Each structure stands twice: as C-alpha cells, then as structure tokens.
Task: inverse folding
C-alpha cells in the first residue's frame, strides 16, 4: 500500500535547500488543498496521484531524476500562489499539478506567465481559465458543459419544465449557473420559479415561502458537497418529494456515506468516469485503488491519477524539461491518450475535450444514469416474469 505523507512546509523548504540547482531535472510540484474547507477533495486527488506514481514506479516508467514536491495549499488561493512562487524560485519547478479548485486555479493562472511555469489542473472547472494563459491545462470539463448537461437532462429526460435553483457563492457556482440558465430558460423554454441564494442566512425561509406551493418536480442545487447535502437534508425533512439534480462536486464518498438514505436518487453530471465499468483502463485502476486503499475511487481520485499519469508522459517527452518543451509536449508530443477518465486531448486553450454524462446515487453507490435505467428495466422484467410463472403455477 502506498502511504500518505504530505510534506510540511518546513520539510519542503529544507528539501529545497538540499536539492536546489536541479533546474534540468524533471521536478514537479503538486499543490493540493488537503486541509481546510476543500480538504476532502484534495485528499481524493492526492490518493489518485500517489497510485499513478506507484504504478509508474512498478513499471519503471518514471523519467530519470523525476521528483515530486508536495504542498498543502490549505484551501487558500493566496497561499497556493505564494507556494507556487516559492517552488519556482527555490526548486526551479517548471510544471505543477495544481489549481484543484476553481478559486485556486484562477489565482494561480495569473502568475504562470510571469513565473514561466506550466500548470495542469486535475479538477478546476470555471469557464475560460485557459484563455488567460497558454501555460494552463486542465483535464476536468468546463462548468459550461456541466450546466448544459444538467439543464438538458432536467428538461428532456426528467420532463421538468419548471424548477427552483439553489445557488451558492463563489467561482464554482458562478461558472455553472449562467450556462444552466441559458440552456434551461433561453434555449428550452423552462421556467425558474425562484432562485434561492445559499449565501443568504435566511435561505431556508426563502425556500419555505416558495417550494411547497410551487409544484416543481425537481430542484437544481449548485455548490460544493456540504452545501448540497444541507439543502437536500432540509428539503427532505420538510417533506419535499421531488427529484434533486446537482453538481459533480456531490461525488464525495464521505459525504454520500454521511448522507445515508438522504443521498439516494441524487442526480448529477460527471466526466465520463464510471467506476463500475468492466473495461480497461478503468477496471484495472479501480482494482488497484481498492487493493491499496480498501475503497472505490471517486471522480476526483480518477482525475488525480490521470493528472500524474499525463505529467509523467509529458516529462518523459520534454527534453530538456523546460517551459517551452513541456508546453509543446502537451499540445504536440502525444496523440490522444486513453486515461481512466476517458480520452485526453486538449483544445487550443488547454481544455480537455470531455463531455459530462449523468450519474445517480443508488443504494449508496454512484453509477451512470443509463446503467441504472438499464438495470431497473431488467429488474422489473424479471419481477414480471416471476409473477407470470407464479400465476401459471397457481392455476
């Protein structure tokens, strides 16, 4: 089993003193929020990164001199930028895996050109980040695609022509909500009966004044997992019987475990990573992850794995591992690669060409909505057949 061991800032600084001057070595910084508000996401991403390193080491695929310097950003965008500056100055780092949250990514992207550092984000999703620097890449789909997918699903598949939107503050919600509104209201003709601001301390009262008499059969909740769970729990306790459509951030195993029965039936779009798949490379990744950690990987662990796996490929090609060669490797050095999150190919702005699909929580497990529907049809068919056999035998 690989073990978790994020370097403390002091230890990282000491290591940098010992090894400074390795500018031609493939040194990669990993800046993740493993503590603070978004620590659970960072921990999942880190677990995938460490498994990718373990796999590459076992296959003897790590580039000569390859080294990883770990940093906990503490869920603080300003601290993430200061640590990025430190890694560039003290370790001559030319590539980092970082910007796990949209807030950290947006802060870091502003200094990439100045520092001449390439950044690969495993999970940032705010639209348009790559337009601000040619040195920024990400393997998580833009929020525009997530909002589009959720709107189409709610209107077309669920048949819900009106809804109530619960939206939190911050860059994440700000990236998703406009596209959802564009699709659901402007393109499809749906009606948003009310918008509940989760940053308002009185949001529960606002919800009580609208939802019971609105008749909406589905609500849309935009935010991170704790906020989403708070809304779901409140509405369920208030007797709401409709469907819940929310964001990919809800795919957090600990949150789903804590939610228990309250999470059942929650729907959300995700990148095309289905941990129940029986095909490679997903099957092997899931099995190795479960062997190492004793649990199934979530979508954030999968993106962490692909981020490091891709980084290793890039640093193998980039010779020397300087900014220009690393950037060229991302764009031109590799053909379309098949990661555990799907095929990896970047557009001109560093965005991966992934398109989200809908997933559902069923009996505590996350599975693709299409797989869920297929299984439910098969279950109903078996029950009908059993009833027919029982009825025939009774006669």
Result:
């Amino acid at each position: 089993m690989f073990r978790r061991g994020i370097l403390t800032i002091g230890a990282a600084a000491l290591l940098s003193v010992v090894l400074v001057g390795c500018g031609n070595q493939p040194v990669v910084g990993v800046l993740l929020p493993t503590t603070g508000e978004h620590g659970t996401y960072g921990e999942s991403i880190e677990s995938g990164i460490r498994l990718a390193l373990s796999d590459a080491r076992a296959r003897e695929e790590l580039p000569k001199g390859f080294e990883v310097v770990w940093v906990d950003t503490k869920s603080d965008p300003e601290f993430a930028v200061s640590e990025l500056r430190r890694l560039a100055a003290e370790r001559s780092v030319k590539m980092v895996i970082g910007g796990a949250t949209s807030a950290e990514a947006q802060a870091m992207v502003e200094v990439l050109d100045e520092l001449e550092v390439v950044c690969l984000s495993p999970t940032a999703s705010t639209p348009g980040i790559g337009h601000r620097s040619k040195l920024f890449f990400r393997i998580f789909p833009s929020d525009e695609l997530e909002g589009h997918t959720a709107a189409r699903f709610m209107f077309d598949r669920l048949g819900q022509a009106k809804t109530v939107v619960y939206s939190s503050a911050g860059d994440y919600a700000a990236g998703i909500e406009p596209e959802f509104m564009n699709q659901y209201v402007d393109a499809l003709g749906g009606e948003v009966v009310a918008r509940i601001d989760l940053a308002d301390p009185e949001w529960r009262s606002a919800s009580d004044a609208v939802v019971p008499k609105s008749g909406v059969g589905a609500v849309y909740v935009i935010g991170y997992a704790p906020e989403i769970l708070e809304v779901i729990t409140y509405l369920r306790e208030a007797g709401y019987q409709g469907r819940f459509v929310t964001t990919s951030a809800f795919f957090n195993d600990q949150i789903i475990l804590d939610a228990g029965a309250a999470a059942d039936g929650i729907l959300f779009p995700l990148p095309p990573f289905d941990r129940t798949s029986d095909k490679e490379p997903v099957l092997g990744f899931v099995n190795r992850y479960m062997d190492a950690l004793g649990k199934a990987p979530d979508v954030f662990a999968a993106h962490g794995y692909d981020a490091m796996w891709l980084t290793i490929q890039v640093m193998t090609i980039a010779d020397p591992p300087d900014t220009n060669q690393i950037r060229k490797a991302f764009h031109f050095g590799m053909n379309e690669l098949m990661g555990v999150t799907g095929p990896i190919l970047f557009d001109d702005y560093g965005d991966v060409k992934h398109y989200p699909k809908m997933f559902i929580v069923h009996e505590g497990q996350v599975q693709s909505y299409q797989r869920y529907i297929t299984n439910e049809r098969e279950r109903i068919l078996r029950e009908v057949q059993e009833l027919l056999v029982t009825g025939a035998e009774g006669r």
